[in-house]
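Example record used in the benchmark description.
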Amino acid sequence: VSVPVAPAPVAAGGFELGGHVRNHGLPYKDKMHYAGMNWVKIQVHYGEGAADFVNLAHANGFKVQLSALGGPQMVVQPGFEDNFAAWVAQLAASGADAIEVWNEPNVDAFWRPKKNPDNYVKLLKEVYPAVKRGNPDAVVIGVSLATLDMEFLDTVLEKGALEYMDVLSIHPYCHPLSPEEAQIFEKIKQIFNKTKKMGNPKPIWLTEIGFPTHKGGGILSLIHI
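Model output (structure tokens):
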């Protein structure tokens, strides 16, 4: 008996989809393509290189987003912004299509001893021109907001963060609420309107996401491949 094969999903409009991989390989690249993914994201820790992975991903038809992350204690070291920016410039020069500056700086686990909007904007200010020197076409992704910490967001915007990014990113995890209960989409609209009101509207990328699949049940979260 011949069983018809369903066609692969096709992304429409300006929406683009990607997967977050754990290591520097692409063992499930065919499944990623089948799902309509044309981006791949990977976290890169301070001092690591990414050229081999960027080349591998590009050779397999993916654009690459690197999440550039330093150790949480780095932020109290004198001159760390310059060192971090120089390293990120090397990542940009490797051909990365987009670079996310730090991961969730509004969370103490990633920025110690506690979140500091002023220092994060200072970091963005150093990293942005460094990325553009390394690769003028690389997209600089800023904020990388964990949950929807509007207090942190408002402060970094007031400090001029929009001048040092091409895209504003958020990680709108909302467990145990559903996206509707947490008003995720309304808040995303509010964030865009904030940037628009400030005269510098930015695209908003959801570079991580997770939410409950049903009340009291499992969570649909970031897929690690």
